[in-house]
Amino acid sequence: MRKLKSNDEVIVIAGKDKGKRGTITRLVGDRKVIIAGINMVKRHTKPNPNAGQPGGIVEREAAMDVSNIAIFNPQTNKADRVGIKNADDGVNKRVFKSNDQEID
Asked: Which CATH number is 54's domain given?
């Protein structure tokens, strides 16, 4: 079971965007995520007339390592860690480590 999923609200704990909050839009492999509006980079693109794409400088989100982010706990308004608890019915649940509240 993954500790981070799409649409989780996270906070950046290291890097140039430290302290910013955003939601995970996409998971890239096991160790990288793309967060909406965070880690913006400029990409120089060539025009592609077949696809109707103009050339120029495009700003987009780059992938960020999961070690540089932490899940945001709305009860404490701080970054938190994710734990996995086994429920009575045998289903694994994600919980915040600080207060054992369920995430999902």
From this structure: 2.30.30.30
**82 within domain boundaries:** no
Using one digit for the tens of pLDDT, what is the confidence trace for 5-59?
A: 999 999 999 999 999 999 999 999 999 999 999 999 999 999 999 999 999 999 9
Query: pLDDT, tens digit, for every residue of 81-104?
Result: 999 999 888 899 999 999 989 987
- Residue 63: how many CB atoms within 10 A of its CB? 15
> pTM to 2 decimals?
0.84
Assess if residue 61 is contained within a domain. Answer: yes
Number of domains forming the structure of the chain: 1
Both tokens of 86, joined, read: 């086994």
Residue 42 domain boundaries: 9-77
